[in-house]
Amino acid sequence: MPSFAPLQRLVVTVAIIASFVTFLDGTVVTVALPAISRELGGGISTQQWVVDAYLITLSALILLAGSLSDAYGRVRVMRVGLIAFGIASIAVAAAPDPLLLIIARAAQGAAGALLVPSSLALITATMRGELQSRAIGVWTAFTTGAQLIGPLMGGLFVDFLSWRFVFLINVLPIAVTLVLLSRLRLPEHERGVHVDWWSGALCAIGLGALVFALIEQERFGRTAPIIWIPGVVGILLMALFLTRQTRPTALMPLSLFRVRNFGWGNIATLFVYAALSLNGFVIGVYLQQGPGLSATAAGLASLPVTVLMIVLSSRAGAWAGRLGPRLFMTVGPLLMAVGALLLLTVGVDFSYWWQVLPSMFVLGLGLALTVAPLTSAILGAIDERRSGIASAVNNAVSRVAGLLIVAMLSTIVGGTLDLDGFHSAVWVTAALFALGGVVSWIGIRRGPADRATPDDATGRIPPAEATR
């Protein structure tokens, strides 16, 4: 790791491995979906729920976890999350039917919510400036690599063992992280941060109701009471949740969004991560159900993206630290849009080398240029005293983006993930990437001048800093 002191090196290592657990589990499942559906039944609806049950609790509770991290200490919250995640993973692997599998996946997501904001907050609370950008670049390279290598690992387990073993991959990283945490000595006192439990409940139930309506509308019809009632309830609960965020003790302080790079960066995050989630889902599933690739081959399809991320992400983070993130956050998503459009060449006469591989190279280059500068721009704009909740908000935005786009999958592909449905998903993916680049060019500005510190008592940002 580049130029880190011993304590900083340990912090980055812990942050990487703890996040690796949740990122790996969120993506390793993709190539296992056809096998799960064959064994337990349920079709595309079950496949969507296996992904979204995890994302619902992860997305809804990650804000609450950010407050808990600021209130009770990053290390303590991370330790609880790791243990709970391990237990939930075993429950997923042992699930005898779709319902228990989905419930266990929801529990897994709740535990995962404790890990990501705590891990990034360790970096943002102990490093600032160019060193922080480089640390986030290293973190991004490894954790995004985990997201992308996950399908390959999942494919190997599905083809040679069982899909159930896919969910036990994270046991070793959990054990290693727990050992490293015991060596990490950071202040663990309670900080007097208010935890808004009601907002956490509103967000969780509201998102759950909305996702239920989106996923099940294909089965029951949009006008069925079982669909529109949860949809309306979900919208009302989310509106109530946002209303509560104007309070001084908000779970997601809306005042943070008045900091330019934080606000615009999260809008870019919404588009980019929705595109990434849609792209990962349809590639992992279609390559098995369409051309008939094995789970391992479908996982190998994204390997070039992984390699480029590992090689280039830390460098992109360092470049952004010197030159500012705007250029990278604009060019990167636009490159990914081009990479997505290259998948339109996929046809009935399938060839990975000519139809998929070029797309993977362009996607990997664009992703490597985007993720570290994006993360650094957003978190570097907020004072370290609020690093836990800032990290949690950004992670919640990215997870909600993936959650909603996967929930809308049936609508996007027309009910069936055949070749026409795959091409429809490609167009949507490219449009979302392009929007991410345009938003970044419009909104992102360079560095420290944009940083603002919300007043601890009021959560408000001084107007001079907020509008700079």
Automatic annotation (TrEMBL):
<dbReference type="Pfam" id="PF07690">
    <property type="entry name" value="MFS_1"/>
</dbReference>
<feature type="transmembrane region" description="Helical">
    <location>
        <begin position="135"/>
        <end position="157"/>
    </location>
</feature>
<dbReference type="InterPro" id="IPR020846">
    <property type="entry name" value="MFS_dom"/>
</dbReference>
<feature type="transmembrane region" description="Helical">
    <location>
        <begin position="334"/>
        <end position="354"/>
    </location>
</feature>
<dbReference type="InterPro" id="IPR011701">
    <property type="entry name" value="MFS"/>
</dbReference>
<feature type="transmembrane region" description="Helical">
    <location>
        <begin position="293"/>
        <end position="313"/>
    </location>
</feature>
<feature type="transmembrane region" description="Helical">
    <location>
        <begin position="102"/>
        <end position="123"/>
    </location>
</feature>
<feature type="transmembrane region" description="Helical">
    <location>
        <begin position="360"/>
        <end position="379"/>
    </location>
</feature>
<dbReference type="InterPro" id="IPR036259">
    <property type="entry name" value="MFS_trans_sf"/>
</dbReference>
<feature type="transmembrane region" description="Helical">
    <location>
        <begin position="264"/>
        <end position="287"/>
    </location>
</feature>
<feature type="transmembrane region" description="Helical">
    <location>
        <begin position="77"/>
        <end position="96"/>
    </location>
</feature>
<feature type="transmembrane region" description="Helical">
    <location>
        <begin position="400"/>
        <end position="419"/>
    </location>
</feature>
<keyword id="KW-0472">Membrane</keyword>
<feature type="transmembrane region" description="Helical">
    <location>
        <begin position="226"/>
        <end position="243"/>
    </location>
</feature>
<feature type="region of interest" description="Disordered">
    <location>
        <begin position="449"/>
        <end position="468"/>
    </location>
</feature>
<feature type="transmembrane region" description="Helical">
    <location>
        <begin position="48"/>
        <end position="65"/>
    </location>
</feature>
<feature type="domain" description="Major facilitator superfamily (MFS) profile">
    <location>
        <begin position="11"/>
        <end position="448"/>
    </location>
</feature>
<dbReference type="GO" id="GO:0005886">
    <property type="term" value="C:plasma membrane"/>
</dbReference>
<protein>
    <recommendedName>
        <fullName>Major facilitator superfamily (MFS) profile domain-containing protein</fullName>
    </recommendedName>
</protein>
<keyword id="KW-1133">Transmembrane helix</keyword>
<feature type="transmembrane region" description="Helical">
    <location>
        <begin position="425"/>
        <end position="444"/>
    </location>
</feature>
<feature type="transmembrane region" description="Helical">
    <location>
        <begin position="163"/>
        <end position="181"/>
    </location>
</feature>
<feature type="transmembrane region" description="Helical">
    <location>
        <begin position="193"/>
        <end position="214"/>
    </location>
</feature>
<keyword id="KW-0812">Transmembrane</keyword>
<feature type="transmembrane region" description="Helical">
    <location>
        <begin position="12"/>
        <end position="36"/>
    </location>
</feature>
<dbReference type="GO" id="GO:0022857">
    <property type="term" value="F:transmembrane transporter activity"/>
</dbReference>
<feature type="compositionally biased region" description="Basic and acidic residues">
    <location>
        <begin position="449"/>
        <end position="458"/>
    </location>
</feature>
